Amino acid sequence: MLDNLVSVATQVGILFAIIAVGATLRRAKVLNDTVVKGFVDVLILAVTPCLIVVAFQRDFSFSMLRSLGWATLISFAAHLIGIAFASAAVRHPAHGTRSVLRVAAVFSNAGFMGIPLEQALFGDEGVFYGIVYVGVFNVVMWSWGICTMRGGDMRKLSGAELKAMFVNPGTVGLLIGLPLFFMSVRLPTVVLECARSVASLNTPLAMLVIGYYLAGARLGKVLKTPAAYLAGGFRLVAFPLVLTGVMVALRKFVALDSVMLLSLAVSASAPVAALTSIFAAKYGGDVDMSVGMVGGTTMLSILTMPPIIAFAMQLL
Length: 316
Prior knowledge:
Radius of gyration: 19 Å
Shape: globular
CATH topology: Na+/H+ antiporter like fold
Largest sheet: none
Mean pLDDT: 90
Low-confidence stretches: none
């Protein structure tokens, strides 16, 4: 387990070194909100679809298709576990704060933090399965996440919101990548290498963005709110450990791919999703609390992710 811990800690340390560069660039006023918003748009609109397409550039096999199916089922189950806990345990008298803490407990930064770590630890195969978790994340975030932020009913989702659940850069990448995978079709070299080059921006750009926002995070409100400790503790420690336990139990009855299970464990161990702050601003949540939760759990994740992922690698 010690070797696993050193390996994971090294990869997490590399990510946090790039995060530190992003924070430094903010302090030096090299980066500003406008530039970073552009980075985020590039990540969402260009890098994410390319990352998915490249990950699915592999020969079809029924064993991988079976693993994809299981990854989807486990990812949905993971989010349902999180929703059950958040709805029952995360309490606060103010709706805006309560909604942010519930969303923070459920949704991890699986795209910006999980995918780079899966790439480093497990290569393209890790990304192949990690993308599934991100896809499920998008569906649940754009349905339950929005309704929780608004304090509304899922039946009241607007047409645009319903569309966003299923038509977004992630699903566009899947719509392109999955058929190519099913037919074992390889893209022309020029197209594939272009997509691969754009996809390679995911780690440095995502970490710079996280570092930029981390440097501006205000943690005072989080530190004064007991419910924030519960939500943060669940997100960083309890949730990934529970999911790992579920996967260990499941593996006793079904033969499941280790890389698939470990990729999901990595996704589940990531800190609070950056999208939490975006949704808080858009749907009337507590923005200060959301920024503090994203920043605070990101800083703590350098301590929590290595032992939890190493533990999962030992068991799975």
